[in-house]
Amino acid sequence: MRNLVALIALFIPVLVLRAQEPLPKELTFQEAVNIALRNSVTLNQQRNQLEINQIQKSAAIASMAPSISANLFAQQFNGNSFDQQQGRVVNGVRDAVRGNISANLTLFNGFNQLNTLKQNNNLLEAQSYNVKRTQEDIINTVSIQYLQVLLDEELLKIARENYESQNAQYNQVKEQVALGARSPVDEYNQLSLAKGAELRMLQAETTLNNDKAILTQTLLIDPFEEYQVVKPNWDIGLITGHAITLDEMYNTAKENRGDYIRAERNETAARFSVAATRGSLTPTLSAFFDYGSAYNFIRDVPDSVLAQNPSLNRPFEDQFGSDNRYKTYGLNLSIPILNGLQSRTRLVQNKVAYENARINTRNVEVTLKADVLRTSRNFDLAKRSYTVSQTQAEAAEVAFQFESERYNLGVTNFVDFAQANRAMVQAQTDRAQAEYRLLFQKILLEYAMGTLKVDGLQQ
């Protein structure tokens, strides 16, 4: 009775400590994707660049409107200066205030402004599709890493079950050897098999820890925070029954792939950039308008002089409001003749950039075709692999069951038993890999076609 009480007293603190340990946080696939999209450095940088492209487009639109400015000048002259109020040179200290409003409107500049607007509009669209594709890249990356962690957990489960089975088999053989029913060599062979299973279990756990760390880095979450990934509740039957032709995939990809559309928009933007640069080589015609007035005040003028010449320092309202008002308007024609070949140099540079953009578009199109073809064929192979792996695993498990019974009865040798065990573990591993790869094939298909969306992800 004392021993029982002591044993209970020993285990109570352990149970209390275990109860105080926080349970691992469950991380669903949808949560992992949302965290990655929220924390991604690359995606946030691309969104910031989108804001820059938006303001550049707005600036290009505003550049087509008149430019208006207001100016105010205040100065003091000490010595000889021309006083427009009197129309003569005066000697002394004179205060002068001038103000004007100017407007300038470009009437024609070789369609430079129009082509610049089209260029910035295409750059904005290109960046928006770049943001879209970056989101899909992140979802795809998280999917691969999340799948790997799920697979690692399943492989660890298989390895642990195999180790427990082999360890139980070892204890059984050990007892049989002690009773003289088996040879000692069987005990050592089974011990080797059990330790090999334990080693593979430890290796599987190491792989799981490493892959969880990689997923943690992608999500940018606290590495010290424990979490447990949750298998998505997807219907593998629906995924297996999903069918789409190669031509349909290709057409859908050309309409939705962000990287391909971005390349097209960049190519178009580069073409308008060439046209805008050509416009800088043509004459520029602009209209201008200027409206202003001025006020002058001569200091230290005797009252007697002011009495004889009352117009010398007229009130501010009279000078600025009526006497000194003026309007100037007209047309200005500017013809570029020579500027050190700067414009022609920019034209050549933009032509090269346009040609490079065309090359990049063709390259992205080839990449798109390769992705669609590879994903389509891999999806068909994944469905077939899943079916084959199920049959293989069922056959291997039955074979190992029969071989275990024969081995326990002493009908078969250890080599055949070990071989059956390895075949079963490998078949279970292949089945797990085929299942999880097939589960995520829908995401890979949508990623290849450019239709992958956060809202389309299901648990």
Describe the protein in words.
This protein has 459 residues and is of the alpha+beta class. It has helices spanning 2-20, 29-39, 41-62, 112-178, 184-219, 236-241, 246-256, 258-279, 303-308, 316-323, 342-408, 414-439, 441-449, and strands at residues 25-27, 67-83, 88-108, 227-229, 284-298, 326-334. The strands form 2 sheets. It has a 4-stranded antiparallel sheet. Strands 1-4 form a two-stranded parallel sheet. A hairpin with a 4-residue loop joins β2 and β3. The model is unreliable at 1-23 (pLDDT under 50).
Briefly summarize what is shown.
With 459 residues, the protein is of the alpha+beta class. The protein has 13 helices and six strands. It has a four-stranded antiparallel beta sheet with strand order 2-3-5-6.
In terms of topology, how is this protein built?
Layout: H1 2-20, E1 25-27, H2 29-39, H3 41-62, E2 67-83, E3 88-108, H4 112-178, H5 184-219, E4 227-229, H6 236-241, H7 246-256, H8 258-279, E5 284-298, H9 303-308, H10 316-323, E6 326-334, H11 342-408, H12 414-439, H13 441-449
Parallel strand pairs: 1-4
Antiparallel strand pairs: 2-3, 3-5, 5-6
Helix pairs in contact: 2-4, 3-4, 4-5, 4-8, 4-12, 7-11, 8-11, 11-12, 11-13
